[in-house]
Amino acid sequence: MLDGAEGPVVAEALDYLVQLGEAFGAERLVDITYCHYPAEMAIYEGSVEEAVAYSARGGRVRVPTTTSTLCADLERPASTGCPAALATLQAQVEGAHRRMGMLETYTCTPQLLGFVPPFGSYIASVESSAIVYFNSVLGARTNRGGLFTRYSAITGKYPLMGYLLDDNRRGTHRFDVHVPPKHLATYDAWCALGFHIGAIVGGAVPVITGVRPDRQEWLLGLGAALATSGSVTLFHIPGVTPEARTVDEAFHGQPPQEVHEVTLQDLDAVYERLTTIPRGSAVDFVTLGCPHYNLAQLKNVAEKLAGRRVPEGVRFWVCTNRMTRRQAEYSGYVQAIEAAGALCVADTCPVESHMRLSTCREHGLRAPNVEAMVTDSAKMARYVGDLIGCQTALTDVDSCIRAALSGVFS
Ligand code: F3S
Known about the structure:
This protein is an alpha/beta fold and 410 residues long. It has helices at 8-23, 47-56, 84-99, 128-138, 148-155, 187-201, 216-229, 247-250, 264-274, 295-305, 322-330, 333-339, 357-363, 378-387, 397-406; strands at 29-31, 35-37, 65-67, 124-125, 157-159, 173-178, 206-209, 258-263, 285-288, 315-320, 343-346, 372-375, 391-394.
């Protein structure tokens, strides 16, 4: 490959990976089974154009490759207010990705679409919430792939380094959670737990004891939050995640570097930190679906909105991927959500959309005019404060829906 036997694009891609491996002392390259690829977003200058040019050079992916989120809902960009020029530019990546043989999923939760790499398999992924899920919950092995994901998709290789190696998957910090289960029975509570632990552990490997996540989405929210306040790439929950049947196994038989106790007060502090909207004040945006919601979550929202109406002046986005939205249409969930005046958004989310203040500035768009956003996701709450410049509240899904229907955060 390096000698160009498979063409210059493959040779170049492998050369980048060899350089990466050499820089980090990798012994060799390994075969990967799957890639989750960064959807080049139109909000980054030149990103789409570069992807289109790259695809024209003839690169083809060798392993199943899904794509991450875009800045627009490509099926109906006007619904989210995405300017036509930006949406048209963004749409060009579809052709580029198709030419390269990628699967146009455009989501941060490809695992919900059945992309579940086998335990122990090497993969290359972007999107911190997906990466931490692949590593921790599925036991696949990936680093934060970044732009090198492209070269892995083209070559089917990645250097044996980082979280691909056994040693780096050993737990480092133990977190003993003393929170009554009834306070860990909602999605947002798992986000709060992850946000608290991530802020302490940074980029290390937490081992979380004393908890029993009963829902897939709780693990998703936990991981996304760990990767937001920290840069966690792998966590273990003894008895739950596959590399930690016991605490001892999670630490590979060694003692933890640090031990922390987690109490309800710690979770309360996260809610306090991520909630800057005073109770009783007006709300003009509600967001659910960070990471992208699954079908059951859409069903729940549809049922709670049935026969209700979101008032004028409140935007309510429920974000998911395009396949789940299509599936939800069959069941009437999208229709129920949208009959209430909310929007079932695919491919994107507020954080990744044209609403970023920097994007508005660069493209001469009107600022998004969001004052106060309520969400059930710690990741969303953390990022929109800075990127969209609004006040935020982290709360449970029922309170989010109540806020959307009343226009008030109660
Ligand atoms: Fe997904 Fe956007 Fe959240 S990409 S993880 S919904 S910030």
